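Dear colleague,

As promised, here are the two records you asked about, laid out in our usual form so they can be pasted straight into your sheet.

NAME FIELD: protein one
SEQUENCE, THEN STRUCTURE:
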Amino acid sequence: MAYDEATANAIAERIATGEPLEAICRTLPGAPTSRTIHSWINDNPAFASDIARARAVGHDAIAADCLTIADDSSRDYVQTEDGPRFDAEHVQRAKLRIETRLKLLSKWDKRYGDRTALELTGANGSDLFANLGKAELLAELSRRMSTPEIARALQSLQQAQPGALPALPGVATKVGKG
C-alpha cells in the first residue's frame, strides 16, 4: 500500500492516545498492516518524526491511565447479602494492569525506566583517575569492578593507545590529565 497522508495522520493521532499499533491496524478502516507502517516510517522522515512524537505523547497517556486505574476504588467492594465484601480479585487485576503498563513503559521510553548508571568521579565532581597512569588505572578499575562486561573493557584498555580510554558500558568516566 502506498503512503497515504490521511491514514498516516489518523494512525499518529491514535498512537498519541496510547493505543498499540497492532490494535490500530486491526480496527482502523482501510489501515495497512503494521509492516507497511514500519516501511512508511523507514521511508518517510517526516512521518517517522510524527510517530516518534505521537509515541512520546502516547506513553504519557499510558502513564496517566496507570494513575486513573490506581485511583479508581469504585469496584474494590462488591455488595453481597451480608453487606459489602472486599473484591481481592478486582484489586489484583487492577494491580496487574498497572504493573503491565509500567513494565512496557520502562522498556519503550527511558523516561519511565529505572536509570542504572555508574559514574566515577572524585570529590566535587573532579576527575577520579586524572593523576593515575595506565597501570594504576587498570589496578583501580580491576579492584572496583569485576563484571565480564567491565573485564572486556579493561582488556581493550590494555590494548589502547596511551591516553585513550575505551567506552565502558553503563559507566561515565573522565580520564586524563588536567
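NAME FIELD: protein two
SEQUENCE, THEN STRUCTURE:
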Amino acid sequence: MARRQPAMLRGRTRLGGVRRADSSPAVRGSCVAAAGAIALTLLAGCSLGREETATDPASDALDARLAETFRIDVSELDVTYDFWPRGSRIRGSAVLRFKMRPGQTRPLFHFNPIRHAAGPERAMLRSLELDGEPLDPLDEEDLRRVRPLRSGEPAFEVQRELAPSDAHTLRASWSIPTRDLRAPPGQFYTNFDDTIGPKNETEAWWPTISSPEELARHRIHLRVHGDRRYTVLGSGVIRRRDAAGVQAWDLDTERPVASHTVMFAAVPSDQVRTAQFDASGVEVRIVSDRSPAIMKRARAITRRTIARLLDDFGPFPMPSMQILLTGWGGGMEYYGATRTGIGALEHELVHMYFGTATVNRTWRDIWFDEAVVEWWQRRDRLAPLRPGFKSDIVGGRSVVQPGFDEAAYGNGARIFGEIARALGGNREMIAFLADLHRRRAFEPFTTDDFIDDVVAAQSKIDRAELERWLFATR
C-alpha cells in the first residue's frame, strides 16, 4: 500500500455432529469481551490466550498461536453481492468452506464490511447457518462477540463445537446501508486499509479469516440492478453474464489468495473512461474518472513498470492487471488489481510481485513487501543505515493484529539497501529477490524465513545484526 506521502511515495445438546456450547454465566463471562465494530470470528474454544511478544521462539509455537487465534482453515469462499444504486441497502451472501485447525473444535470468522458503521452491528446479519443448522445471529446461545487476544481483532464466536477432521460449511446473508459505504454515490468497491492500528479492525467484506496466511479460492458474484450501465473490475478472471434486468459479473481468483487481497469495484460507465491494452504480454485495463492526460500518463507508467518487472522478476503472477485510477493520493494493492492515484501507480504495480503474490505469514511480517517495493523504486537514492542502527519494525508488532510499522517505507527500504550492498549491488539484489519470489510465491513466509534466506546468500551481515535491525530486543 502506498500512503499519502510527504517525503516518499509515499458444548450443550448434540445436534447432528454439532454440539451447542456450554452457555453458563462463567463460560459466557470468559468468552464475551468488549469489542468495537463488527467482526465475525468462528473461535475454537474460549481461551483468550496470551499476548504476542517479540520473541515467539519457533515455527511450531507460531503454528499453535495462529491456530489458537484464527481457529479455522478456509478452503473456498463463494460470495454474492446485490447492489441497487438508488436503493438504501446492499445485500450480500456467502458460502464459506473450512476445516478446524489442529487442536481446535469451536469455529471463528471475521466479518466487517463497514469499519465505522452506525447503529446495531448485528442488524447487518440476516441469516446464519452452520452445517445445515439455522442459527440466530441475535441469540448469544448461537453467536457471541469476543476478542480472542488483546492484540487480536474483535470477533463473533459461533456457539458450536465441531468435529476437527470434518469439512464444514457456513452460510450467511447480510445487508449493508448504502449510506455507510465509503465510496462516491453510485459506486461500490472494496476498501481495505492494512495500516490501521490496534483499536480498529480490517474491512472483511464476507465471512473469512483476516490473516495474510489464510489463502482460499474466492468466487465473487456481483449483480447490479437498474438501467444504468456499469463497469466492473477486480481480482482474477472476470466474466460477464447478464440476466433480465440485472447486470452480472463473476470474479474468480482461480487460486487460493488472502481475502484482504481480493478487490471488486462497480462504477457507472458514464462516469469513467476505460483503456484496455497489452503491456509486454500482460492484459491491462484502466478505469478512471481522471482526465485524458492523466489516463495517458497512467498507460505510460503501466507499460514501463510492467516491462521492468518482467525483466527483473519473471512472468506476471496474475491473469491480468485491473486498475481503478482515482484522485486518491495513495493506493492499495490487491490480487491482480489496485485502487490507486496516479502518484502511487508504480508502487502498487510492484506489489503484484511482493505483497499479493509473494505473501507474508503474519501481520507483523508485512513490513517486508512495503520495504522491498520502496527499495525497488528508490534504490539509487537511499541513505545507508547509521552505525549501530536498531529497530523494532517487526518485533514491536503483534502477529495477529492487522497493520504494520510504517517505518517500513523508510528504514525498511534502507535495510534492503544494506542487504543489496552485502550481496554485491543492486543487480545481485534483484536476482536474490527474483529467486525469493520464484520459491515463495503464494507460500506464506515469516521474517525469520527471510532472514534465513539473507544469511544463506551472503556473509557480510550475520543473523544477529539482521535481528537487531528488525526485532531490536532479541
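A couple of things worth noting about protein two: Residues 3-56, 116-120 have pLDDT under 50 and may be disordered. The chain has three domains: 14-211, 271-350, 363-470.

Best,
R.
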